[in-house]
Design a protein that fits this description.
Shape: elongated
Low-confidence stretches: 1-5, 120-135, 194-213, 245-249
Largest sheet: 5 strands, antiparallel
Helix content: 25-40%
Strand content: 15-25%
Distance between the termini: 71 Å
Number of strands: 18
Length: about 425
C-alpha cells in the first residue's frame, strides 16, 4: 500500500512501463544478460523521471481568476478571465474551473483548457475552441438565477510529454459572483404614492386654508397627462405636472413576502423569484422618482439597516442575497400610517389575512401572486381571488398577478386600477 501511494501520480501507461521495466530487469538477472538489465533499468526509470517532471510542472503554474463584472444582473453576460503566470512548461497542464449551473456556464464554451506552453510573460498557448493561441484564457457566463454564487475552485492536472505521470491539485480558490434580480422599467404611480391624495396628512395640513395643496414640477417621461397643470405650463412655458404633495413625507414602505410556504415553483421560474424581480423594479422606479423607500420583509425587518447607505445598490444587493423564510404567518409590528404601503404577497390564508390587515388598518396597495399558476399541483389554502376580495373590503387596492405576466404589466394594472389579461 505504501508503494502504491508513493507512485499514485503515475498514469496507467506509466504503471505498465514501470512494471515492464522491473520485470525486464529481474529476467536479465536470471539470464545473466547485462544489456537486457540496462534496457530494463532505463524503462523503469522513465516513469520515475516523469513523476519528477509532472510535480515540477504542477508547482510552476499560478493562476488568478477575474470576473468582469463581479456584480451582474440575471441574464447579463459575465466574462471569467484566467491570468496564468509561471516559468516555461516542460509538460502540459489541464485547467478545469468549477462553476455552478445557476451561474450559467455555456455548453459551447466549458471552463476547461489545456495549456501546452507558458512564456515568461505569463501568456499561454492553449488548445481550446474559445481560447485563441497566445491569449489569456477566458470563458463566458450568463447567470440564470440571482444570488451569491461561488465560481471555483480551479484545479490543475499536470502531465509530462509522454503521458506517464499526472498530478492534480487545487490551484485557485473560489471567487464571489453577486447576481442581482432583473429590474424592469416601470411608468407612473398608483394613487396616494408620492402624493397626498386620499391621505389624512394632506387633508389635515390644509384645513381652513383657501388654497389647495398643489405643487408642480417639470414633466417627466411616464407622467400621466391628466396631471398636467396647464396654468403653470403657460406661466413657465414648459410642460408642468401637478404634484399634490403633503408638506411632510413619510416615504414608501415596500413589504416583500418571502415565506417559503407562500410561494410555488422552483429555480428561476418560482413565484418567489418573480416577487423579488417585481420588488426590485418597484424600488428602482420609486427611488428614481425621488421617493424615500424602506424595504422590509413579512416580519417587519428592514433588509437594509438604517444608515447603511448605498441607496438602490444596497437594496439590490440585499435582494440578491435574499433567502426564503420558514415563517408561517404574516403577523408583525404595525406599519405606520405616516408612510404609504405597497406589499408584494404570496399565498395568503384566512388567518394570515387578518394578521396582515391588523398591521395596517388604513389599507395600502398590494400585488397578490396567484401562486396556483406557478405550480397548480402544489397549491393549498385559500384562492387568490378570495383573498383579493377580502383585502379590497378592508380598504386595500389589489392587483392579482399570475405566472407569465411581466412586472411592468402588473405595475400598469396597479397604477390604473385595470386588470389586463392574466391579472384580476
Amino acid at each position: 500500500m505504501a508503494a502504491d501511494g508513493r507512485f499514485s501520480g503515475l498514469t496507467t501507461r506509466g504503471r505498465c512501463l514501470l512494471a515492464g521495466g522491473l520485470a525486464t530487469a529481474a529476467c536479465s538477472v536470471l539470464l545473466n544478460e547485462r544489456d537486457l538489465l540496462r534496457v530494463g533499468a532505463f524503462v523503469a526509470l522513465l516513469p520515475l523521471l516523469a513523476l519528477l517532471l509532472a510535480a515540477r510542472t504542477r508547482r510552476t503554474v499560478r493562476v488568478r481568476r477575474q470576473l468582469t463584472p463581479a456584480r451582474a444582473t440575471v441574464g447579463s453576460e459575465v466574462t471569467a478571465t484566467l491570468h496564468l503566470t509561471g516559468s516555461a512548461l516542460l509538460g502540459s497542464v489541464r485547467l478545469v474551473d468549477t462553476v455552478p449551473d445557476a451561474a450559467g456556464p455555456q455548453a459551447a464554451a466549458p471552463p476547461r483548457f489545456t495549456v501546452h506552453r507558458l512564456s515568461g510573460r505569463g501568456r499561454a498557448d492553449a488548445r481550446s475552441a474559445h481560447a485563441p493561441r497566445g491569449a489569456l484564457l477566458t470563458y463566458p457566463l450568463r447567470p440564470v438565477l440571482r444570488g451569491v454564487h461561488s465560481v471555483g475552485p480551479l484545479t490543475a492536472s499536470a502531465t509530462d510529454p509522454l503521458g506517464l505521470a499526472e498530478f492534480e491539485r487545487q490551484i485557485t480558490g473560489p471567487d464571489r459572483l453577486l447576481v442581482l434580480p432583473r429590474v424592469v422599467g416601470l411608468r407612473g404611480l398608483p394613487p396616494a404614492v408620492g402624493s397626498g391624495d386620499g391621505t389624512p396628512g394632506a387633508a389635515l395640513a390644509h384645513q381652513g386654508q383657501g388654497s389647495s395643496d398643489v405643487l408642480t414640477r417639470p414633466y417627466r417621461y411616464g407622467d400621466e397627462l391628466r396631471r398636467v397643470h396647464w396654468r403653470s405650463t403657460a406661466r413657465y412655458d414648459e410642460l408642468m405636472v401637478r404634484l399634490e404633495e403633503r408638506p411632510w413625507r413619510g416615504g414608501m414602505t415596500v413589504l416583500l413576502d418571502r415565506r417559503d410556504a407562500a410561494h410555488r415553483g422552483r429555480g428561476a421560474d418560482a413565484s418567489l423569484e418573480f416577487a423579488v424581480s417585481l420588488t426590485a423594479s418597484i424600488c428602482a422606479h420609486l427611488i428614481g422618482r425621488g421617493e424615500p423607500v424602506t424595504l422590509v420583509t413579512e416580519e417587519g425587518a428592514a433588509l437594509t439597516p438604517p444608515g447603511a447607505g448605498g441607496g438602490l445598490d444596497a437594496l439590490l444587493d440585499a435582494l440578491a442575497a435574499l433567502r426564503p423564510s420558514a415563517r408561517a404567518d404574516l403577523a408583525g409590528p404595525e406599519i405606520a400610517r405616516s408612510t404609504d404601503l405597497l406589499a408584494v404577497l404570496g399565498a395568503v390564508g384566512p388567518g394570515e389575512l387578518e394578521a396582515l390587515v391588523a398591521r395596517r388598518v388604513t389599507g395600502g396597495h398590494a400585488v397578490l401572486l396567484d401562486v396556483a399558476t406557478w405550480d397548480p399541483a402544489g397549491t393549498d389554502g385559500g384562492t387568490a381571488s378570495g383573498t383579493a376580495a377580502a383585502l379590497r373590503r378592508a380598504g386595500w387596492h389589489i392587483t392579482v398577478a399570475s405566472a407569465g405576466t411581466s412586472p411592468d404589466r402588473v405595475w400598469d394594472a396597479l397604477t390604473s386600477g385595470a386588470a389586463p389579461d392574466g391579472l384580476s
